[in-house]
Give the backbone structure.
Amino acid sequence: MTRPPSKLLWAAELPRAAWVVATWWRHRVALAGAPPGDGRAVMLLPGLFNSDRSNFVMARFLRRLGYRVEGWGLGRNRGVRSVGPDAERLIARIAALAAEAGPVTLVGVSLGGMLARLVAHRRPDLVRAVVTVSSPYAGDPRATNVWRAFELFTGERVDDPSVRARSARIAAPLPVPATAIWSASDGLVAGEICRCDHAVAVEIRSGHLGVQLKPALLLAVARAIVRP
């Protein structure tokens, strides 16, 4: 059974996130080497209890590369409370974007990545590819240090049969190309459950908080979008 990250890694989350922000300027040259975009539509999905504001650095970076980048526009991510029991509100947003710009590449952070996979299963016609970032979709939710926060903010219980059934569907092989970006040193979710055999796995060295700001993550996302 996969265990959650250690208390040491958990305690290091805030200092590591602060260090990413403090040293971000050092990586401008590396970021300049990211592959250019081609104008395709990309939607960014935030993590648990985060909003589109949490992805502003990634959005700006991908727009500069040449992508059409949109947030999910559903406020803070509170799981089904935000997207609906079958993600119908999120699907409506993606369908509107796809009607204008063609199938959408979904980039989801943590819980956002799990919702991206759910949408890709339900409406693969709307989704070009899925990129998950530190998303614990491939194992027991208790292999995280945030499952109680998930229950608090979403109003769901991880042991509820309907939640387990949805989790199994999310973890199933996707009908579209998938990339899973993960970290063995994540302090909130076990890296082992953030990847699987049927998605391209890309390892970076990062904590969980603020991972979407990390230059190595931005480069990994840019390369993953090009890959399909």
